[in-house]
Amino acid sequence: STIVVENSDREKVHRHTPNLSMAPGSAENLMESTLAAARNELTRGLGGLLDKAVPVETSPRDGAVIVGTRDSSPIVSRYISARDLASIGKDGYLIRSVSQGTVIAGNTDIGALYGTFAFLRLLQTHKPITGLAIAETPKIKRRHLNYWETERLYAGNNPAGTGGLNGENGAIFNFAATGASAGKNLPVILDRYIVAARAMASVGINGITINNVNANAAYLTPAYIEQEAALADALRPYGIKLAVSINYASPTDARFAPDTLTNQQLNPYGAAFQSWWNRRARQLQAAIPDFIGFTVKANSEGQPGPQDFGYDHGDGANGVAAAVAPLGMTIFWRTFVYNANVDNDRLKRPYLEFGHIDDELQPDGTRGRFAGNVFLQTKNGPLDFQAREPIHPMFGRMENTNQAIELQVTQEYTGQSTMLSYLAPMWEEVLKTDTHGAGLVGNVVDGTTHGQSDTAIVGVANLGNADNLTGHHFSQANLFAFGRQAWNWTLDAEDIADDWVRMTWSNNRQPVHTIVKMMMGSREALVNYQTPLGVAHQFRSSDHYGPNPAQWFIKDDWSPVYYNKADSAGLGYDRSATGSNFVAQYFPALATKYGNIDTVPENLMMWFHHVPWNHRMRSGRIFWDELVYRYQMGVQYVTWMRQTWDTLRPFIDTRRFSEVAAKLSAQETDAADWRDTSVNYWKEFSGRQIPVDNGPLS
Ligand code: GCW
């Protein structure tokens, strides 16, 4: 077969950064254009898969793969009509078998690149590549990643001080011009940035916020903007645009002197505030013409925000949004807030702060105060990325506001880079949960429920400095799955796992079947050995990895004991009408279901109820016995995974085989620690024995 990729003139990329350079001996694959990237993927991919060089030509021979847009290529136009392309949108693609071979077409070059990756995926997963008539369009427009890997090093980073390239604690993109990594900082483009870009583009990620939401204002300074521009230039051919996290009080930061405001000038409606942000945005846009906008964590976990100056989240978000609206930029305003003055139950706080703003009657008679270029960015659940949470009640209830869902790809609370936990089943569960009032969560996010035209899904990313980018080999599956689900949230987590295993490990039936099976049960096992039946957030504070159910902090809503409410009567947090009544934030049918201990799904039980130790469970066991059983099941699953992985030795290369084996064995130890620490602590309250049919706990 041959490859035909035609370049069009109109897609020449912007190169603003005069001194864009490459690390010595690296980045020879820095791409000039999107179609060149597509061509490169095909030569590399087909060459590798077919084990022979595949020529690139300008006119097709039989069996050719033809890639492009109607504008870029007369051959594409010959096979694909404008009408064919009419319904697939900006990012969509068509893959068609034609007399001369295969045509991959998009309305845009990036659509053609996405189609190219999809075609390679078919080949790589041994799917048929004849008789193709594929038309794909993403369900969600903005498929973004946020990076705050810097925070706790919970994914694939080298721990600080162990030779990570990065000055900023091992985040993937290196901005630091000093220290060990000096000389390897942006605008130097390291190979791994391109590797990461290809990985992201291969699953349709089209935007990233590059810095921690606990934001350092340095990212708005001219020196950093120049570095960001270099990164933007490098990622642009892959369809990935940049955004930056901001600190609400940056205008008062001395680094911007003489352009520095006083606290009094942080009035979000004031001219000083708005023109300050407009100036920053214009500087960014001058360097990065397609700059997305800002991600904001305000009045949350010590970050400043409009409330410090007498305004609410609507005022603050709209103030920044108004400043950047003339530039076509967007604000992603996070809703991860939990001010203790709002309510005793932390879970109730976000909706209490944001809900009334969504509902507020406006002077023009419409409802909802948030500006059109504001997204509220809301975690999937009401607490904080636990292995299982109920859905966040704001999904469906914010009818007049653009809502983005935020999922944590990096495994902060889900095993970090030690545990194999495949998270696609969790995201599938979330996106397919019925709100009982506004359709499924996925319908809310993709805009069909409330008719929003701009839609977004955000993953907190897990790319770091590790050779394989994610640390645990299986963490790559989470990035892959996030991208696939962001593109189409109706996909089945198991099908995605099947693709990933074939692309990553083997197409041989036995490993495919076995590894997919391991992955599919891994998240439920994690829930079971960490926090079964809905007992939330039992993590020790130091690293959010291991258990500490007895821990009590000055901030009670960070304390495991605040969540578990263990006493001699039972375990769990009563959020029904007899308790905090958090359930009332859901649509009535869901509130009724969750609010009743007999109808709440057992796997969410302790999120909503203080469950008596002797409560009769659906299995017939009493709650205490069921609880211990779940912990034990979780650990046993990990033992099973470790043993099962051993059977795959003949199919897996030695290095990756042993790296995964070592991680599984650490996971088994740590899972047992979760079980033992938790059960022994609960036992002090239940006063009951460990049931014998659970076998010995270590
Ligand atoms: O889960 C918590 C993390 C913080 C994070 C915060 C947030 C970056 O422990 O590291 O802050 O969530 O989402 O803002």
Question: What's the topology here?
Answer:
Elements lengths: L2 E3 L15 E2 L11 H17 L13 E5 L5 H6 L2 H5 L6 E6 L2 E5 L3 H16 L8 E4 L5 E5 L41 E2 L1 H12 L4 E3 L12 H14 L5 E6 L24 H17 L5 E4 L16 H12 L5 E5 L14 H11 L14 E6 L22 E7 L15 H8 L9 H5 L10 E5 L14 H13 L5 H12 L4 H22 L29 H5 L5 E2 L16 H8 L9 H4 L2 E2 L10 H24 L7 H33 L12
Parallel strand pairs: 1-3, 2-8, 3-5, 7-9, 7-15, 9-10, 10-11, 11-12, 12-13, 13-14, 14-15
Antiparallel strand pairs: 4-5, 4-6, 16-17
Keywords: Carbohydrate metabolism, Glycosidase, Hydrolase, Polysaccharide degradation, Signal, Xylan degradation
Catalytic activity: Hydrolysis of (1->2)-alpha-D-(4-O-methyl)glucuronosyl links in the main chain of hardwood xylans
Protein name: Xylan alpha-1,2-glucuronidase
Tell me the distance between the termini.
59 Å
CATH class of the largest domain: Alpha Beta
Tell me the total number of β-strands. 17
Instruction: Give the overall shape.
Output: globular
The structural domain count equals 3
Total count of helical runs of at least 4 residues: 19
Q: Which architecture of the largest domain per CATH? A: Alpha-Beta Barrel
Q: Bound small molecules, which ones?
A: 4-O-methyl-beta-D-glucopyranuronic acid
Q: Taking strands numbered 1, 2, ... along the chain, how are they ordered across the largest sheet?
A: 7-9-10-11-12-13-14-15
Describe the largest sheet. 8 strands, parallel, barrel
Radius of gyration: 26 Å
In what range is the share of β-strand residues? 5-15%
Query: Helix proportion of residues, in percent?
Result: 25-40%
| Mean pLDDT rating | 91
Task: Please identify the structural class as seen in this structure.
Answer: alpha/beta
CATH superfamily of the largest domain: Glycosidases
- Here the CATH topology of the largest domain equals TIM Barrel
Low-confidence stretches: 7-29, 158-169
